[in-house]
Amino acid sequence: MLINELSKKTGLSIHTIRYYENLGMIKGLADEKVKSNNYKHYNNNTIERLEIIIEAREVGFTLAEIKKILTSWFETTESKPETLELFHAKIKEIDDKMRYFKQTKRLLEKVCEKIQNNE
Amino acid sequence: MLINELSKKTGLSIHTIRYYENLGMIKGLADEKVKSNNYKHYNNNTIERLEIIIEAREVGFTLAEIKKILTSWFETTESKPETLELFHAKIKEIDDKMRYFKQTKRLLEKVCEKIQNNE
DNA sequence: ACAAAGTATAAACTATGCTCTATGCTTTTA
DNA sequence: TAAAAGCATAGAGCATAGTTTATACTTTGT
């Protein structure tokens, strides 16, 4: 599929997709049989990768961090202990953030109560 | 307390605290009895506010959004229905993000398993 | 009393993550 | 076949959230 279709399937703008491609997070390939243009083709793996990017950026990971996640998930053949530790650290980060989430949610709920009681 | 103490108690840099003060998220007051300087004094409410800021920014709320939360929590006297709706929407956002969190955590755990099995 | 440390204000600078514009080529469509 | 739409590349511009620098005044410690 070309970039337009990819954009529609993921909900990301064409600009954003190209931005991610420039960062090396995804990769499209030009059809070698077609010499007249340089149109890049993307496959379902690209969709998977973009969905992971969307998920992980919601969590607040930077694009650099997400790139590492993608590499470890899709490309890594060898297993470095420091990579493993990195991911354990990230999991811990998520757990920490979850706590902030619960606290903030509780605060917001209290704000709602306060607003309603003032009526 | 002065800004240095506030910085130590919250873990935020003096610069960041001033940045938040410029945005109107917190407010220090100069001692009127002292004419020789313009040193601002902060109280425990400021600490509370900064702790809320720290929590909420981890959740990914923008400083503008956090400012609204603070206003509704500490300053609002009247209760506007649209404010209430805003906060309900924010709570929903948090719930949505929690889902992303769980998915991303699961992905990271799988990455860890993958790395370990490759050994 | 004087150097060091603290405070205030303003402005410049930086990093991240886009978003938009310009240019030029290719493909599709009426 | 000419106009419109799509694709690629490069670079400029923008918003957010700080961080750093410069300047100047005040307070504190020795």
UniProtKB/TrEMBL annotation, chains A, B:
<feature type="domain" description="HTH merR-type">
    <location>
        <begin position="1"/>
        <end position="72"/>
    </location>
</feature>
<protein>
    <submittedName>
        <fullName>DNA-binding transcriptional MerR regulator</fullName>
    </submittedName>
</protein>
<keyword id="KW-0238">DNA-binding</keyword>
<keyword id="KW-0678">Repressor</keyword>
<dbReference type="GO" id="GO:0003677">
    <property type="term" value="F:DNA binding"/>
</dbReference>
<dbReference type="Pfam" id="PF13411">
    <property type="entry name" value="MerR_1"/>
</dbReference>
<dbReference type="InterPro" id="IPR009061">
    <property type="entry name" value="DNA-bd_dom_put_sf"/>
</dbReference>
<dbReference type="InterPro" id="IPR047057">
    <property type="entry name" value="MerR_fam"/>
</dbReference>
<keyword id="KW-0805">Transcription regulation</keyword>
<dbReference type="GO" id="GO:0003700">
    <property type="term" value="F:DNA-binding transcription factor activity"/>
</dbReference>
<keyword id="KW-0804">Transcription</keyword>
<dbReference type="InterPro" id="IPR000551">
    <property type="entry name" value="MerR-type_HTH_dom"/>
</dbReference>
